[in-house]
Specification:
The complex is a heterodimer of chains A (about 190) and B (about 160).
Chain A (H helix, E strand, L loop, with lengths): L2 H9 L3 H23 L2 H18 L9 H34 L4 H9 L3 H8 L2 H7 L3 H11 L5 H8 L3 H25 L5
Helix pairs in contact in A: 1-2, 2-3, 2-4, 3-4, 4-9, 7-10, 8-10, 9-10
Chain B lengths: L2 H5 L2 H5 L5 H13 L1 H20 L7 H80 L1 H4 L2 H12 L1
Helix pairs in contact in B: 3-4
Classes of the chains: A mainly alpha (about 190), B mainly alpha (about 160).
The complex binds zinc ion.
Zinc ion (ZN) binds next to helix 1 and helix 4 of chain B.
């Protein structure tokens, strides 16, 4: 059964067809979300939110885009919204801490960790995630879809609704920016004896 | 190739997407430069981390939990609808209570008027009864009802 047939059956309230759709896109959606949030539980919760939205609005889906493209767009939007709300919360928290006159605990933890080589080694694998967060949104989306979903350029261009050459350009700039940040981080970090 | 030139290609080298001749140049530099080699290993670790973050196992509980969440959402939505229906219903309820109050008020008003009338009727009955007892009372007292004229005529006839 192809996606079109599956869609028609779901729109006819076929629960088994919806189950099949979830089975078909579950891993891809979890991976997309993971590319943004880098936390297994959050990615899983977000993926379930994605399918809830798919279920609730599939009756209105008119097929202007492919079913898969539509699902990926929902996944990207949900993940970005999740990050925005978290950023807002942590900004509010840091403002609160500032006005309360509390010390920057994150900064302290980071410096204590730099004394522990094991922790730093563990941390080193996540430098890319931090660097990814600082990229412009469209570069980040292109990078996540390319790396976490292993999407070809043509599919990324469909999901992002831009040309294939724009995708190429976005990905190249994303990698260049990440490289600059990673090189800067690793060539300037304190030496551990 | 010097360190700076390597830095400009190191991520592309790590993901093996740099040009072939550059791949060879960088490889050559890395075998000779410890700093660039350690940078390469760190960047490679980061790229491999993407692979470890990606899910590959099938998650059997995913759909069950999704279904539970969907049911919960539908229940919440139903409650929300009920809540908004209640919100609409609330002024109607108040209006109904007021109307009922007015109706009861009118009803009580009417019934108390009837009570007053009954009371008045009862008062009238009592007065008739009083009159009756009075009559009885006066009936026992002949003098009270006898007119002066009758009394005089009787007295006159007795005297005759
Ligand atoms: Zn070097």
């Amino acid at each position: 059964m192809n996606d079109q047939e599956l869609l028609a059956q779901i729109q006819n309230n076929d629960q088994l067809a919806f189950k099949e759709l979830v089975k078909r896109y579950q891993k891809a959606v979890v991976n997309t979300c993971m590319g943004f949030v880098h936390n297994t539980d959050d990615a899983r919760d977000l993926a379930q939110e994605v399918f809830i939205e798919v279920y609730q609005s599939i009756a209105k889906f008119r097929g202007d885009a492919k079913l898969s493209t539509w699902i990926y767009r929902i996944a990207v939007n949900k993940s970005l919204n999740f990050l925005r709300s978290h950023k807002k919360n942590s900004l509010l928290k840091s403002i609160e801490q500032f006005f309360k006159g509390e010390k920057n605990t994150h900064y302290e933890i980071a410096h204590n960790q730099s004394a522990d080589s094991e922790l730093l080694n563990n941390e080193t694998a996540h430098v890319l995630n931090k660097a990814l967060e600082s990229l412009p949104e469209n570069q980040r989306i292109a990078f996540v879809l390319s790396k976490y979903d292993e999407m070809p350029y043509a599919k990324i261009s469909e999901v992002m609704d831009i040309s294939v050459s724009s995708v190429e350009s976005l990905l190249f700039r994303a990698k260049k920016n990440l490289q600059t940040k990673l090189v800067h981080f690793y060539t300037n970090k304190p030496k551990i004896n | 190739m010097n360190c700076n030139e390597v830095h400009k290609q190191i991520l592309f080298f790590a993901e093996a997407t740099a040009h072939e001749n550059q791949m060879q140049e960088i490889q050559k530099h890395l075998t000779a430069c410890n700093e660039c080699n350690s940078l390469y290993i760190n960047i490679l670790t980061n790229l491999k981390n993407i692979e470890t973050e990606k899910t590959s196992q099938s998650d059997e509980l995913f759909f069950e939990q999704l279904q539970a969440k969907l049911n919960q959402k539908q229940k919440t939505n139903a409650n929300l609808h009920l809540h908004s229906f209640r919100q609409v219903l609330e002024p109607l309820k108040i209006a109904a209570v007021i109307a009922l109050g007015i109706f009861l008020g009118v009803l009580i008003g009417n019934s108390s008027e009837q009570t007053v009338q009954t009371e008045q009727a009862q008062t009238e009955t009592y007065s008739l009864e009083d009159e009756f007892t009075k009559e009885i009372y006066f009936a026992g007292n002949d003098l009270a009802y006898e007119s002066v004229e009758e009394y005089l005529t009787e007295t006159n006839s007795q005297n005759k």
